[in-house]
Design goal:
The chain has 297 residues and is of the alpha/beta class. Helices cover 46% and strands 14% of the residues. The protein has an eight-stranded parallel barrel, surrounded by five helices. It starts with a helix and ends with a helix.
Length: 297
């Protein structure tokens, strides 16, 4: 009888150890997966500041969306719903319902508008920072766009730096960061950020910019460095899905980011197959799946 009980206890103990080991293994894998999260731009999936972006992102199996501030045009500030408490609650509820997070709040209006010349830039930026605080998001995305291309318009550099320094002080009040996208290569962008001299202003790195500059993406990331990198737009211009794009060596990019010990959001902006460019679910579903295969498995 004693031998039977001993055997029984031994089996139970073995199962407990196995269960604990299995659970720890799963937890470790889950923790590792959280190093990188994959999002899509709400404006690129045709859901610019729309509640439906969360459901669609969920269908694409994305971890989050980059939530836009809305159109800008000639307005004093963005056409945003995020100053309305009723609308804010709807966005938060949808995020929770579909378990889709928010990588960053985007000021995509500056793709076509001048951050250097618009007179009400301070109001625009402050409205975005207020939205960050309300939505509990720590990163804002600021593309300098065509009108503030620092390579084509170097004379704008002083005023851009001055405005970024002001913006950095404001976003610091909520513990946030403004991620700026330029057309500079990594060496020049690192020098630019050093000139801004504010740890609340970092880079939003875009694969397509590195490719346009004829630079190796992985090398550019390493030059830029972990401390300067707030988020990554992990796509090229339209043409091919990420998995079919010969200009992007995704395993090499992951190895570089792993070596840097960087953690954060990979955001799909484009890389649509131009033979079927309007197929939102097909294009973004494929790109999200590929990024997850490389970065989360």
């Amino acid at each position: 009888m004693k031998s039977i009980n001993f055997l029984k206890n031994l089996i139970i103990a073995t199962l407990v150890v196995f269960a604990a080991t299995f659970t720890n293994s799963i937890s470790a894998q889950s923790s590792k997966k959280q190093n990188y999260k994959v999002a899509v731009c709400d404006w690129m999936i045709l859901k610019r500041q729309k509640l439906g972006a969360f459901e669609l992102a969920s269908q694409l199996n994305a971890d989050g969306i980059e939530l836009d501030m809305g159109g800008l045009g000639n307005r004093e500030t963005f056409d945003s719903k995020l100053a309305n408490p009723v609308e804010v609650k709807k966005f938060k509820d949808k995020s929770k319902e579909f378990n889709v997070g928010i990588s960053s709040i985007a000021m995509s209006g500056f793709y076509g508008q001048s951050f250097a010349k618009r007179e009400t830039v301070k109001k625009m930026v402050q409205d975005c920072i207020d939205a960050m605080k309300t939505m509990n998001v720590k990163v804002a995305y600021l593309p300098l766009g065509n009108q503030c291309d620092l390579k084509k318009n170097p004379e704008l550099r002083p005023v851009i730096i001055e405005r970024l320094q002001w913006a950095g002080k404001q976003v610091a009040k909520i513990g946030g960061v403004i991620a700026v996208e330029t057309t500079l290569d990594a060496t020049a962008e690192k020098a630019f950020l050093k000139e801004v001299n504010c740890n609340r202003i970092k880079s939003s790195f875009n694969f397509s910019n590195a490719i346009e500059n004829r630079k190796d993406i992985a090398t550019e990331l390493q030059i830029l460095g972990k401390k300067n990198l707030a988020q990554i737009h992990a796509s090229n211009t339209d043409g091919f899905w990420l998995q079919n794009d010969k200009k992007i060596n995704m395993p090499k990019i992951k190895a570089a980011l792993d070596k840097m010990n960087w953690k954060g959001w990979l955001i799909v902006e484009r890389s649509r197959d131009t033979t079927d460019v309007h197929n939102v679910k097909g294009n973004y579903g494929a790109n999200v799946a590929y990024l997850k295969k490389i970065f989360q498995n």
